[in-house]
Amino acid sequence: GIQVEQSPPDLILQEGANSTLRCNFSDSVNNLQWFHQNPWGQLINLFYIPSGTKQNGRLSATTVATERYSLLYISSSQTTDSGVYFCAVGGGADGLTFGKGTHLIIQP
Amino acid sequence: GAVVSQHPSWVICKSGTSVKIECRSLDFQATTMFWYRQFPKQSLMLMATSNEGSKATYEQGVEKDKFLINHASLTLSTLTVTSAHPEDSSFYICSVNRGLTQYFGPGTRLTVL
What pLDDT digit, counting tens, does each position of A42-74 carry? Predict the structure, then answer.
């Protein structure tokens, strides 16, 4: 099956810093999503981005489908950004294959 | 988006008992729902695809006789963990597709003593 690798696995930053999270995948996909899992376990949809660039406030994402990677940018980090960020890929209407996540800690 | 609920939020049971977890799509009809499992400090793993009115499709390595899935209506799928054992303790999360985007429920934390 398709492989999804995320880096870095852990990231500790000071409040106000910027960060870039990376997701590499091993095959072409029709679906790529970024999620933030909060401390209670809820997965929050950040982006549906199988290709191109999107922005939502302090967050933006870029997927280069031909090179099989996606980047999630977080600017001006806040403590509430802490949590685990997952990249997940799939073939459209299929279930998703998740990466192992990036555990982000934003320190005040 | 889509609003997905799960019940219960958490459950503790004794080894050997069965536990039913409900997943509801609150604001649209879902012909397909997905069940995932997440062990502590690990990623989510797809367990099965639940199809309304037909049998579920299980991922390799997931015992279909142990994890019974029933998708009886367009808004409800249930996962029953039969004869639960401590190694089944995990966080179970369901999701629905709306268009090509998946939306997840809040999850059910199962602890088997």
Answer: 999 999 999 999 999 999 999 999 999 999 999
- Residue B94 half-sphere exposure, CB side, CA atoms within 13 Å? 31
Nearest to A17 by CA among A84, A70, A82: A82
The whole-chain average pLDDT of chain A stands at 95
Nearest to B62 by CA among B21, B95, B92: B92
Distances A68 to A4, A47, A51, A61, A71 between C-alpha atoms, Å: 10, 16, 10, 14, 11
Strands B108-112 and B10-13: parallel
Name which of B89, B98, B88, B84 is nearest B34 in CA terms. B98
Query: Nearest C-alpha of chain A: how many angstroms from B16?
Result: 26
Do the Cβ atoms of B101 and A48 come within 8 Å?
Answer: yes
pLDDT (0 to 100) of residue B35: 97
Contact between A94 and B42 using a beta-carbon 8 Å cutoff: no
pLDDT digits (tens, 9 = 90+) for B88-113: 999 999 999 888 789 999 999 999 99
CB A91 within 8 A of CB A29: yes
Element (H, E) at A98: strand A97-98
